[in-house]
Amino acid sequence: MVIVSGSFDDLKSRQIRFLEEAAKLGPLHVHLWSDAAVRTLTGHPPKFPQAERQYLLQAIRFVQSLTLSADNIDPDALPTEMLAEL
């Protein structure tokens, strides 16, 4: 399993390419930051709401599964539910 984490706000072709390349390493799981987490980690609100970012990521064929983050996340730590899957 390959896990990537981020806001994936304002998706562009380079992020799609990143997801494609990551999926070549194994089943791709995206850990999507909530709107509150984006505000906390970047200091500004996301351009696109969480529901729209989630919809777009789930529509990408390379993404096998997606988890929404809690509002207070550590971007360098895996969520405990993901650790159980490993």
Give your account of this protein's structure.
The protein has four helices and three strands. It starts with a strand and ends with a helix. It has a three-stranded parallel sheet with strand order 1-2-3, with helices on one face. The radius of gyration is 12 Å and the shape is globular. It has 86 residues and is an alpha/beta fold. It has helices at 13-23, 35-42, 50-59, 80-85, and strands spanning 2-6, 28-32, 63-68.
Can you give the mean pLDDT? 87
- Backbone shape: globular
The secondary-structure element order is EHEHHEH
Put simply, the count of helices is 4
Q: Over the alpha carbons, how many angstroms does the gyration radius reach?
A: 12 Å
**Biggest sheet features:** 3 strands, parallel
Q: Note the gap between the termini.
A: 7 Å
Task: Give the helix level as a range of percent.
Answer: 40-55%
Strand order of the largest sheet: 1-2-3
Strand tally, please?
3
